[in-house]
């Protein structure tokens, strides 16, 4: 039974790492899991015996069981919540709660995917739909793909608020600027708004560069109770607050195409952290499509509803802008092997630690950022998880 002190512990991110990312033709997803896990554990400086929790999704039939076995772990706390791209922020919230309550000492969140390599090798094909059973059966026959759903939502925002294609395209341009400072980004060459607008159409209004890239890769994040922080190799990054929310799966049940569940998860995360959006120094947001970035910025409160188009102009999202966003280049330019939410947490921690190299964000006087937010989106705005992190 946890003691009273164990039931009210602070929780820190103590280790983060990426596996090999981008074009990885020879590794399996399990190997990328293991590579990322080993690197994150080494980054933390803790012994693997401390890890008694594991969170994993997206691999195998029994994700946390199979991955734990492959990693040689026997966790007594596990999570396999799968809600698309927001999975990892939701899992981080669950893990932080479990550690704070004394149900675990240290929880490893780990992910790996060879989505790009699998298609190139013919091991899988591109899917048009997540499924054709249950509520989804009423949309699938009409070719209502994932990208089409995001495109419809973007068009609604354009109709309601006058958001322009040029403003959406500028999000891709700024993501590529950030990727230019990241040696690990898959695409680093500068692009222009005209490049985005003139590309091949995927789903109106999205051309190719409005959409995330497909890559291979993995990453891992280790969270631990505060009593282990003195033994870690790096300064802690504290979990200050989190929030989760789900919205819909059937488009007809989505009340407003211009509002994502991040409006609820963000509000909860900021309130629990005791901070405001204006306090945030760095934002890492899910960006499978340009519109996701824009609407998430609105819903997290960085600007008012309908003002996202104007907000993203003038380089505001670049490393040196007013709100550095997706500082590694995001899913639009750096990497996107599938459920990218865990990469958001890795980049946020690296920025707060001052480990981001050429892409490092600096405040006035060269100071490191103090607060970051990571907000993941799952499905077609079906779910959201938001985590606020602070430097120790």
UniProtKB/TrEMBL annotation:
Residues 243-391 form the Thiolase C-terminal domain. It holds the Pfam family Thiolase_C_1. InterPro entries: Thiolase, Thiolase-like, Thiolase_C_2. SUPFAM superfamilies: Thiolase-like. It comes from the Bacteria. This is Acetyl-CoA acetyltransferase. It comes from Streptomyces endocoffeicus.
